[in-house]
Amino acid sequence: MAGVESRLVGGECPYFGCVPSKMMIRAANLLAEAGRVNGMAGRAQAEPSWDPVARRIRDEATDNWNDTVAADRFTGKGGHLFRGNGRITGPGEVRVDRKGDGVDVLRARRGIVINTGTVPAIPPIPGLAETPYWTNREAIQATRVPESLIVLGGGAIGAELAQVFARFGARVTIIEALGRLVPPEEPEAGELLAAVFGSQGIDVRTGVSATHISHDGVGFGVKLAEGEALTAIELLIATGRKANLADLGLETVGIDVNARFVPVDERMRAAPGVWAIGDIVGHGAFTHMSTYHAGIVIADILGEQRHGAEYHAVPKVTFTDPEIGSVGLTEAQAREQGMDLRISVSQIPSSARGWIHKAGNDGFIKLVQDAGRGILVGATSAGPVGGEVLSMLTLAVHARVPVQRLREMIYAYPTFHRAVEDALRDMTD
Ligand SMILES: Cc1cc2nc3c(=O)[nH]c(=O)nc-3n(C[C@H](O)[C@H](O)[C@H](O)COP(=O)(O)OP(=O)(O)OC[C@H]3O[C@@H](n4cnc5c(N)ncnc54)[C@H](O)[C@@H]3O)c2cc1C
Questions:
Q1: Best of 7, 12, 252 to mutate for ligand 1, by most ligand atoms within 8 A of CB?
Q2: How confident is the model over 381-416, as pLDDT tens digits?
Q3: Rounded to the nearest 5°, which phi and psi values hold at 305?
Q4: CB-CB contact of 70 with 14 (8 Å)
Q5: What is the pLDDT of residue 226?
Q6: Which residues lie closer than 8 Å to 236 by C-beta, 6 or more apart?
Q7: CA gap 325, 361 in Å, rounded
């Protein structure tokens, strides 16, 4: 097997995405927990320092952005690694441009798997291109916390990093063009985050857009459509991701080069002898989606029996504090599909565990039931461990467990997931 990689073996997640960002979040949450000691467990005063965070990301997460360990793991299993830019040149053929150091031509007996991921989507705001803005890559490599930071985009990546830098002392403003934070999530999630962020001193501006961006050598100026002008030392662009499909030679195997994502069937087949997986197929930009797809392709290539790709129970977690976990359809998406719905929301603070937890107990459980089938088609779990509580909801949506059976099961007392039982109890039939 040949693997072609133009940058770092392992992709975005271990070097610039999930892993280092979750290390930052872990550190930021420790500071938040220290702040919660007062009034509940005595007195504590934490002095934030970014040095151990930057060091941990450099040394433990990314090996100083060196992929030797990952590359050795791949070649140790018998893979042949080709470093350079890969381009399909016809059925079963890939040319690897070794960036000025020659060209390799690979011929596949079984097939080609395209897994080129995404890059940050940079909005065409006048002035922006001429400024030294951050994307997730610069934010992850930050060796100091800026005194002030504007985050353009209030989706999962923007919200997570905004809270991290705020907890380490930056004055943070989030600008989100849509009406709420984490727009793909339930409205309650965006409202909750806006309230929590506001109480933590983050300036959240929703429904506003930037019209001009400048940099004077020291800091950024961001003009808003309403006429207001904001300033900050750093600017993080977190306005979404764009599939890496340019110059891959897709047309040589009959794949539409102008499509936003690569169309695939349930076995991830994009063309005869060509599979596509991960962010580029447009079913959610998550590491677990990419590895899920990989399992399907491996089974297909090896001729093993396996269920084709299903997307009715895709879980996702925004690792803010509170965490926002969600699975399946939102209420609005389910309504668009014409389902007869039963909706129920329970509040974490009024659950037994939430009441015990007290400081930092913000959150809720929202369930979306398709009454016609008597099953959950979507759920949101926001709270201190919202991403963990999500697991049982993911199972319920995935396996289409009847709501009646969910009501009949036993929920350990006093856990956060008992708020699921509260929501089920309050759900009208
Ligand atoms: C800040 C941040 C936080 C995130 N947090 C999470 C999280 O908590 N949980 C989660 O599930 N997801 C998270 N994600 C998303 C996750 O990182 C991506 O969904 C995941 O990395 C996508 O995997 P992939 O296999 O599709 O592609 P990628 O990981 O993007 O890998 C694609 C690889 O292909 C290479 N490549 C591209 N074109 C070529 C070419 N022509 N030739 C050779 N090589 C090429 C690239 O260099 C790259 O290494 C986060 C992302 C960011 C930015």
A1: 12
A2: 999 999 999 999 999 999 999 999 999 999 999 999
A3: -75, 130
A4: yes
A5: 87
A6: 133, 134, 135, 136, 138, 139, 149, 150, 151, 152, 158, 161, 162
A7: 15
Parts of the chain with a pLDDT under 70? none
CA torsion sign, 314 to 7 to 136 to 244?
Answer: negative
**pLDDT tens per residue, range 207-220:** 999 999 999 999 99
Structure token pair of residue 344: 């129920």
Using one digit for the tens of pLDDT, what is the confidence trace for 332-347? 999 999 999 999 999 9
Q: Please, are residues 417 and 389 in contact by the beta-carbon 8 Å criterion?
A: yes
- Mode of pairing for the β-strands spanning 148-152 and 171-176: parallel
- 277 to 115, 251, 265, 287, 382: CA distances (angstroms): 5, 17, 11, 11, 29
**CB of 153 closer than 6 angstroms to any ligand 1 atom:** no
How many C-alpha atoms does 76 have within 13 Å on its Cβ side?
A: 6
Q: What is the DSSP-derived secondary structure letter of residue 344?
A: E
Q: Is 136 in the pocket of ligand 1 (CB under 6 A)?
A: yes
